[in-house]
Fold these 3 entries.
Entry 1:
Amino acid sequence: MPASRFLIAVFEFVLLIFSLSFHECAHAWMASRLGDQTARMQGRITLNPMYHIDPFGTLILPAMMIFGPLFGGGAMSGFLIGWAKPTPVITRNFKNLVRDDTLVTLAGPVSNLLLAFIGFVGLAVTMMVQGNLPDQDSVVSNVQALQVLCQLAINVNLALFFFNLLPLPPLDGSRIVRHFLPYGALKAYDGMGIFSLILMILFGAPIVRFLMEPTLGLVYLALSHFQAG
């Protein structure tokens, strides 16, 4: 196994943990802005991963997907998915329950779009200036490392954006869907439990892959206009 592949996998894993922490921090920040201080009082408005890590969704499952293929575990290969510990929200603290809860819910996926956009900008800038940089091995290698990091930021955060909008409890998409369900269906929906987790594992990656392929095609089509020389 080449050392470069393992190093990229480590970068991807660390970037995922940061992106998930940023996602949950965005939930907590928006809830605080809209009147619910529950997450703030629990210290969740922070990028410190220790406040956000879910052992299975943040560490075990992503590690299997990232490092598994490097050691022959191809069954878990595919686009990266994962989740962190849900941010506590008490909706009765909101002035407008549906509107405010929806804004808090969307803050997480939007934060991942923001990180993906930052990665896009970083990649575009390095592509534009690459031809004008000194022809030195250290400079070239540093620029290439930055480009890899930006590409990972785009891939990881777009995957998290699509994955978290899946309508499966407790993912963000389910919090939006539940506002439109009748009471009887709502109880069954919230009680999916382990069945929802199984659906995430079995169908999460294929659905994310289906959505990611055309999206990344558009992203790299746009980046082609920034290619130096």
Entry 2:
Amino acid sequence: MEAIREWGAIPSTDRYAMLDRIRQPALVVHGNKDVVVAPINAFILAQHLPDAQLVMYPDASHGAQSQHAGVFLEHARTFLNE
């Protein structure tokens, strides 16, 4: 539980130091009302990945993909077909 809480906190500056080496496109999907992993982490992750797209679903929590299943599938299809 401590590790989960720590990951949900705003990370230290070196936590994402190796992410710039990932060259694969990434789709970062998050709910803006997630209480398990704070939404700021999705922004930070997308910022540190060289080829990331961020989708933030409104009024969604930790299960954003299932809460917005239809639109998520469209986003995923578009991402995978690019």
Entry 3:
Amino acid sequence: MSIARRRFWEAAAPVAEGGGFGIRLDGRPLRTPAGALLVVPSAGLAAAIAAEWDALDGEIRPERLPFTRATNVAIDRVAPDPGPVVAAVADYGGSDLLCYRAAGPAGLAERQAAGWDPWLVWSARALDAPLVAVTGVMPTPQPAASLAALRAAVAAEDAFGLTALHELVALSGSLVLGLAVARGALAAPEAWALSRLDETWQAGQWGEDPEAEAAAAVRRADFLRAAALKALAAGERVAPIG
């Protein structure tokens, strides 16, 4: 996406385009950095992207265009060659956060079991991918059939779903939680809280670190936005991210 450093348009608007929906800046089509027309599969996602551009005031800062940036990735990088992204995401199945449990204290171990066990059950039932939970952090091989099933679940996503899933999994450290959010089985805020269970426990014991909490808040917003990208691309309505 080749753009000037400051706003040069009056209005951004979503339009029907090429079997999907594009965005026009004063009638000029928005393009990706590789020069492709920026076309998304739903009116909702196009509206969200147009809203990003309409909200810009003065200098154009990429961090204020998260849906645009994710769409660029989906179109320019993921769609032409999804294999490497599928592999990178599927690799998390072998070291899923939910499978590594604390030996103690007892309260933390109990909280992990209560929060994480239901989603390992879900993985076994919904994805045909039972995983082994162990105590400690030493790598433990997972069943080959389960890893193959998880990879198939990842590969079933389209370019936009895969782009969103990559962020969900990388930010949470859990392929199971990412797939549960992507498939609508788990709300994104709850998934994020489950992924932060250890950190929340430590903060409760020793107090909060303001810098760590601020960094976590940024990551949480990115996680919720990835979930929103997945939902919007599928034509679903989403609540504002707060």
